[in-house]
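Let us work through a complete example step by step.
Step 1: write down the sequence.
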Amino acid sequence: MSTNTNQTKIRVQLIDPHQITLWGVQQLLTLDKRFEICALASNAAEALKFAANSKPDLIVLEPDLQDESGVALISALLELTPAKILIFTGNTSSKVHDQLIAKGARGVIHKTETIDNLAKAIEKIHQGELWLNHSAASRILKQITQPPTSEASSSEWKKLAALTSKEDKVTRAIQMYSEKTLKQIAVDLHISEHTLRNHLASIYNKLGVRNRMELYVFCGKYQKTNNPELHPKRRSTDI
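Step 2: predict the structure and record it as tokens.
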């Protein structure tokens, strides 16, 4: 694992119903100087309380919380904190994984993976990327390429028409350079990252989406591309 201390540490909150898992992952990630474990939670109530108080940059969530809904918890966490969410689970159901991504999680990693892969996923998601395997990426692209109904198209095109010229430019940059972080995209657009985030907040509100993944799917369906050869493709990261 990396021992680089030149950067600000990524504040990580761990959520898992199993105390041994919480302790083990905490111990292993603490060895990596990129991370600071700021909170541990074993149920939804603790997760929400600690997320509000400890202000994590990223939340590692096991959605199988026994009698509680991890899917509902994602929505609650995203309303409470700007932290990005990584699913760390033993569940192998692609349907469940897609549902969690649709709710706003930025990636999924299986508990059989190495701690190094978990650390890499945390870092990449914190940088603004997604962590998806090829199968998940293919399913998302399939959703994008499904033809919308004419009624839906009319409604969604009106939303796109409400974007300012700068916001339209931002959506196309997000689409074209999906592998880049927001900081890198901001440089390409010759604006600050703060300004880019402000544009995205306005775009999300106008289009009714919650994150870069939903924006990608929305624009992939409804936003016309001037050059078909440059139509964006989702870059996947093998877990």
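Step 3: interpret the result. The chain is about 50% helix and 15% strand.
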